Amino acid sequence: MNEKMTRLQIKKMVKLIIGVVFIMVIITGFLIYSLSQTMNDSARKQMTIETEEYKNRINKQIEADFQSLDTLASFFTSEMIEDRDSFARRLDTSNKQNNFRTMAFFYGNGSGIVSTLGLGVKKDMSYKDLNEAVHPVIEKAFEGEKSVSRLFKSDAIDGRVFAYAIPVYIDGELSGVLMASDQIEIFSDIINGNTVLGGNGYLHMVGTEGNFLVRSQNSVVKEKISNIFDGPYFDPDEVDVLKQEMKDQKKVFSSFMYEGERYQVLLDPVGLNGWYLLCVDTLQDSNSSIYPVLGIMGVALVGVALIILFLLIYGFRMVQRNNRELWHRAYHDSLTGAKNFPYFNQELAKRLMEGRELSVAALNIHQFKFINEIFGREYGDTLLREVKEVLDQKMREGEFFARDKADLFYLCLLDTDREQILTRLQDIMSAIVNISSHHHNNYQILLYCGVASNEENSKDVTPLMTHVMFALTTAKGSYQNNVWFYDSDLHEKEKKENYVESHMHQALRDGEFQFYLQSKVDLRTGQLKGAEALVRWVKADGSMIYPDEFIPLFEQNGFCTKLDLYMVECACRQIRQWMDEGTEPVGISVNQSKLLFYENDYITTLTNLIQKYDVPGNLITLEILEGLAADHVDELNHKISLLQEQGFRISMDDFGSGYSSLNILGNLHIDELKLDRGFLMEVSDGRDARARIIMEQIVQLTRRLQISTVVEGVETAENEKLCSDMGCDLGQGYYYSRPIPREEFNRKYMEQVQ
Fold first, then answer.
1. What interhelical angle do 689-704 and 717-726 show, nearest 10?
2. Which residue has the higher pLDDT, 130 or 479?
3. Does residue 284 register a pLDDT over 60?
4. Beta bridge mates, 266
5. Can you name the CATH fold of 497-752?
């Protein structure tokens, strides 16, 4: 009985052991699989992070070349490109300075100038004569789109090159295409870096078909092959599938065996011309040794519990270590060792959710790109590391900073008082300047800083970062302050100005600039004698943008020349309508900007307009500002005489608002003088007797010079009587009428004179 019981117990024990062993085998197998997946996922994640970084570097290189072309094109003028001999020399010099292989400019007819390093300049060459790979990018540029060509073999420089092309706009019109080409080897410095996967990996750049474009010097594969599918990188059975996935621009993970070691591989599309980055992780040979060890442990059931415990601890530590490395790589800048923008953005969001009062500053080095070009990239990198060291010292407990890209640093400060922040930032910038001067004591760097505080206690990162970048941009545009605090009013003004500049051409095409008229009345008879044309911007939704919101901006960007001519044409069209209807027309005054007045074809353009509508020139009065008379009175008089020969009347507007003098008035051959409303306001209040004397003398002088006078700002019957008593000719102001649409003007005045 005891023996039977013993056997039963043994059987139970055996079954228990078998069950335990079975469970252990399952657990061990699961652990092997999980650990393998964790390691593979960790490796793939890191390889993905790395290739994204190098893709960004490649795209930044391309964008930098585009920026060089854009900067060069911004200096082109119509006169410059028309003089082909001079322009060819300029283009050749620029090509040598920028170290492109080839640089060319093509006119609208397809002919152009081509400069090739070592081969000189060809002045009359069609783009069709270039390699056919260049044709599509040039044709896209003629359509207003910049692009990059595919690789092609250049006979001129015996190498593989690719081309950039951008449209060139002069005065808002497409004037040609600027093209440059460079060898694919310019990416060698990027590909051959020793920092790939912390020095444990390397990159190749390959084409869609697998051909090598740029090789890394760090490859573990020793064979000289021209295509990745010809070597050991991929199993022959998967080549067809891989080729199709590359044609579809898909990301591909794989692995290969070489000299007894297994390596992880990632093919990641660059996003340009079908190019790929081939990333190889050379650490996988050491990691792969764990798999046979774990396999033996799974088979050897003796001590399985200890082994599993060991594996758990080992796996946990390895995952923990990998996670630490991944976290460090994901949230640190590799150049300076500072935190990066993803970390800053994440940490800032956390602080805002906690409801903390804080400020964000954005720090920028002035002309950092040119510092790199003048002193070398090594000095630029050293300068960035020195900025990081200063910030390490100056940040207080609970504060943090990060480097985003290039020379842009973000600071999260716990101060919200502007004076304290200003003092701290000036101290930080002084420390950076002092350190940098040790390297180049003949060159002092300049820093800009924008600041925004979380004054509204918002929980959202986006508006705060938008505000700080606006403040930084404002600081860069200021010649007085290199530290600028966010101003909401200025931001709203900037947004409105951006809307005005981005919509002005479309608004002109769509007829949103409407033609308004304000009456001019004879002070003796009370009869209508003329009108002033005034522009109003009425948007499609019926809302209005007022003149003081767009006229100053148009005077800065030059759009006022187009608008002024548009108003002259509207005046001509209105006068023509009156004449066709049998209504006796009245003269219309139109303001003319200084920029338009001195354009070479100004008189011809105006003459063509009155001829087009067949209207008398004396019905158009051109109003100029007194500032035109400040210098070069003789030149101005010559221009006035030419206009008067075509029948136009000339009026000086806002006389007395600036630095005009009676001497200038006596020297100008104008037909009309408009007294600024400030004169009338000073005279009307009766407190300044001298103002009345001056105004009376001006009126008497204009009468002797046979110049008619118009008084602006007549708003009361008393104003009208005062101007009439002084001998002024015409009155203009709200007493008679506000500026009104031409249709209303016609109903109010012109129907009465038919």
1. 50
2. 130
3. no
4. 253, 279
5. TIM Barrel (3.20.20)
Q: What is the mean pLDDT of the chain?
A: 83
Q: Which one, of 538, 448, 456, 545, lies nearest residue 495 by Cα?
A: 545
Find residue 411's DSSP bridge partners: 361, 401
pLDDT of residue 397: 92
φ and ψ at 542, to 5 degrees?
Answer: 95, -15
Long-range Cβ contact pairs of 383-387 (< 8 A, separation 24 or more): 383/436, 383/439, 383/445, 384/335, 384/336, 385/335, 385/336, 385/337, 386/432, 386/435, 386/436, 387/336, 387/363, 387/432
Cβ-based neighbour number of residue 736 at 10 Å: 17
User: Tell me, what's the pLDDT at 6?
Assistant: 47
Give me 356's structure tokens. 């903390």
In the block, tokens 């209504």 appear at: 583
Out of 222-226, 245-249, 365-369, 584-588, pick the least confident: 222-226
The pTM for the full model equals 0.45
On whether the CB atoms of residues 400 and 347 are closer than 8 A, the answer is: yes
Beta-bridge partners for 675: 655, 711
Q: Which residues of 419-439 are buried (b: 16+ CB within 10 A; e: fewer)?
A: eebbebbeebbebbeebbeee
In CATH terms, the fold of domain 341-486 is Alpha-Beta Plaits (3.30.70)
Q: 220 CB contacts (<8 Å, ≥6 apart)? A: 202, 258, 263, 280, 282
The CATH architecture assigned to 75-186 reads 2-Layer Sandwich (3.30)
- Identify the three-state secondary structure at position 638: helix
Kindly list the domain boundaries of the chain, sorted by start residue. Answer: 75-186, 194-298, 341-486, 497-752
Residues ≥6 apart with Cβ < 8 Å to 538: 512, 514, 544
Q: Mean pLDDT throughout 574-587?
A: 95
Q: Is the pLDDT of residue 465 over 50?
A: yes
> What confidence score (pLDDT) does residue 298 get?
55
